[in-house]
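Preliminary data (for renewal application), zinc ion complex.
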Amino acid sequence: MLSWDTPGRVDVRLLHRHLAAHCAGYSLYADGPAATWELLTDLHDRGFLDVSAAPSRRLVTGLTVRRRTLPDGYLGLLGRRGRRAAEELARLRNFFDAHTVCSQRLFADYFGVADLPAGCCSTARCRCSACWNTSRGTAGERRPAVAEAFHSPRPRDGGRADHSLRDRRVDLQVHRLLQLQPQGIHPRRLWHALRGDETSYNPRSRKMITLPAALRDSRHFGGRADLAYAAVGESLARLAAAGAAAEDGQGLWRAIRTARPAGSGSEPKRSGA
Ligand SMILES: [Zn+2]
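Predicted structure:
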């Protein structure tokens, strides 16, 4: 007789054998260990039991072979979802490849609309990127800053439209990292933190030193993998001019007030990196 009073770990095969032997009509519900496992997970889903397959590193799914041949149409049904996804992906690829065809026209084609509304893509306020790229009717018009930013490889910096926006973002990140190191930090270690390097070289001890956890855990760690070292110095100079950071004479920098540096008020919410 098995005891299941506090079953921390249950062998499903033994459980099945036990239930089949002691519960009248159990085999009508579950005709094998696989079905018992299915029953357990059903009970888990309904909140009656707490079942976890995590401790078992080998067998977590039970299968019973009932028929050696597949039902008619089974493979076709099974592949339906993948085929539909492949079709949609192909359409998406065509959409992005057709970068000289008006995007509104492509959308209309996709949704089966014959005619575009009058005035579609006719002014700078509503023109799609393809129409900008092919300069259809754009004489004397400038791409708006938003469209320009979107067109750039780094839209979150405002693209080529606004260098000062990128500078402000860098200043904000540098200031946040300074705040995390109230004892002061060398610009080179700041740079490594922005690049996402776990360690930096200390010329005094001639050793690779792991960056403090406070920096490594910051959401700005690795936030500027492409930043040139000189840009850190430029950012610190801007922060010093704004009264947000200062050097202590030993080469270490600190944030000198908790207020946000100038121009950081419009920092967008984190959207990824
Ligand atoms: Zn267009």
